[in-house]
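ok so I'm stuck.
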Amino acid sequence: MKTIFTPLLLADFIKIERKKLIRIMNYYFFKIGVLGILLILILISAGWVYIKFFLPQFFHQAIIYFMILGFGLPAWFLSIVLHIVLEAHLRYKEIAVMEVIPNLLKIVLILVLGYFWQIIGICIALAISGWISFAFYYLLTIKIRLAIKIIERFPLLKKLSQKY
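replied:
not stuck anymore, here's the structure
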């Protein structure tokens, strides 16, 4: 999916100055998020109907997993857009942070929640990690000043940011 959105948005994002693009993103971000959540609710409902009425009884237990994973999808879409913003403006330090920290948190969540709640825990961990990844993208793309304040508040984060 990312390979479809990247060429479409990258050309437009490169043309716009970063500060102006962030202002535009701030203006439309809430609307896009609400629209994404509504779209996901419609898709989850359609998936529920399909599984419930068109698949054998054996597959009905997959509804809960499908619904849990579906709630992580809006964060994934929004994260793709923010990743493209970072790529368009050559912000590779932020992208490097986004590739490491949220994925480490995802692994920890999968291990912990998977240990306690097996497959449902893993599904919950994947959905939560999508929102965590989105939060990191949002901080490092839109709310960069807040991210800098957080880094300066914690000595370990400050040392890591200076080193890398």
